[in-house]
Specification:
Strand order of the largest sheet: 20-21-1-22
Oligomer: single chain
Bound molecules: shikimate-3-phosphate, phosphoenolpyruvate
Helix content: 25-40%
């Protein structure tokens, strides 16, 4: 457990944040599919991307992917087309509760041979690699976009290509767009229009150098920190105005609702306070396209004692923990009055707040990181703080650089 206290205000500092975990995991898989012809720069040093790299290099028949959801889903598709190889892919206790049936059904309908090693619908999976020649599939698109990305990535290696029809509401759309844009960027003419994705079989891609942009979900904690500070400025490197990452929506969300100004210069992003900003009565946001910044936004609201209604949160309950329950439990420790439904979270007011809260992280990196900015206002304690490694291993080092005092207790 750590205790975090703010030492200096205003903040002024520069940080280098690791590459996007989402871009990295897609590019690592593509590179494996296409004989490592890409030279990747600023690849994420997150545990999830390291696990992805190790799994792709692994030649044994048992792969443990721990908490890494994207890696679990992308690798299920990858191993299902490795003819002549049989593997079992497993993960953490939580991974064994995260649904994968939609993806397994789709792959098996295409001709894969995947069975459940424990519980129907969930990892671990036994995968016997097969040649897949079927070239079209319909898949529900309202549970996780990661299933759709997984199919799109391996579609490039199916001899007849793949047409994917998305059935129902499409959630986390920017993550599907990121996949298609990355395929386009390496020269694969993938198309995503309305509810149809078309992926052509591709023999080879050109060798080229690609720079992974830094992680926008990780940037969210600095947006929150600035929103909870005054006259402060933080510069973070390797961010661009034209991002592939949907979480770059942070720029507009924090400009409009929390008074944080973003400026880009020479590949860096500077965040600072807008002195003319005033908080609205109740913040309303639909976050269906940006699920990973929902926790950050809820915690920023608590720091500002703002009321809010956050909707489009139906995917939060199947992530690293049930994030809706975790947010309610922990943010109520600051006096927030919170109501959650299956797909929303509202903060309707605040009770008087008295004690220094001891905050729990539920094995969820984003629970630890979203609450850290509250240290700018309150003295807080965070249990199991090393969960941050999943996406941002140097998080606490960076907070020390910013001037926070972090004590193990
Ligand atoms: O494709 C990706 O890289 C991701 C997609 C999103 O998941 P869902 O599509 O399950 O919402 C997101 O929450 C996750 O952190 C990363
Ligand atoms: C949901 C997340 O990751 P994953 O689904 O890849 O485990 C996340 O990083 O917030």
């Amino acid at each position: 457990m750590i205790e975090i206290s703010a030492l200096q205000s205003p903040l002024k500092n520069q940080l280098a944040i690791t590459g996007s975990k989402s871009e990295s995991n897609r590019l690592l898989l593509l590179n494996k599919l296409f004989n490592q012809v890409l030279t990747l720069e600023n690849v994420s040093n997150s545990e999830d991307s390291q696990l992805m790299q190790k799994a792709l290099a692994n030649e044994t028949d048992l792969i443990d992917i721990h908490h890494a959801g994207t890696a679990m889903r992308f690798l299920t598709a990858y191993f299902s087309i490795q003819e002549g190889r049989t593997i079992t892919i497993t993960g953490s206790a939580r991974m064994k509760q995260r649904p994968i049936k939609v993806l397994v059904d789709a792959l098996n309908q295409l001709g894969a041979e995947i069975t459940y090693a424990e519980n129907e619908g969930f990892p671990p999976l036994k995968i016997v690699g097969k040649k897949i020649t079927t070239n079209s599939i319909t898949i529900p698109s309202n549970i996780s976009s990661q299933y759709i990305t997984a199919l799109s990535l391996i579609g490039t290696k199916l001899e007849n290509g793949l047409t994917i029809t998305l059935d129902g509401k499409i959630i986390s759309v920017p993550y599907i767009q990121m996949t298609i844009e990355l395929l386009n960027r390496v020269g694969i003419k993938a198309i995503f229009e309305e509810n149809t994705i078309t992926i052509p079989f591709t023999e080879n891609i050109q060798s080229e150098k690609l720079q992974v942009e830094s992680d926008w979900s990780s940037a969210s904690y600095y947006y929150s920190l600035i929103a909870l500070s005054k006259e402060s400025e933080i510069t973070i490197s390797t961010y661009f105005e034209n991002s592939l990452q949907g979480d770059s929506a942070l720029q507009n969300i924090y400009a409009e609702h929390f008074g944080v100004i973003s400026t880009f210069k020479d590949g860096s992003l500077t965040l600072k306070n807008n002195p003319a900003f005033s908080l609205e009565n109740r913040i309303e946001l639909d976050l269906i396209n940006t699920p990973d910044i929902a926790q950050t936004i809820a915690a920023t609201c608590v720091g500002l004692k703002a009321k809010c209604l956050l909707t489009g949160l139906e995917t939060l309950k199947i992530k690293e923990t049930d994030r809706l329950v975790a947010l309610k439990n922990e943010l109520e420790k600051f006096g927030a009055i919170i109501t959650i439904t299956d797909d929303s979270l509202s903060i309707d007011g605040y009770n008087a707040y008295t004690t220094v809260p001891k905050l729990e992280t539920y094995n969820d990196h984003r629970m630890a990181m979203c609450m850290a900015p509250l240290a700018q206002i309150y003295s807080i304690r965070i249990n199991n703080e090393m969960v941050v490694e999943k996406s941002y291993p140097t998080f606490w080092e960076d907070w020390t650089k910013l001037g926070f005092e972090i004590k193990a207790i």
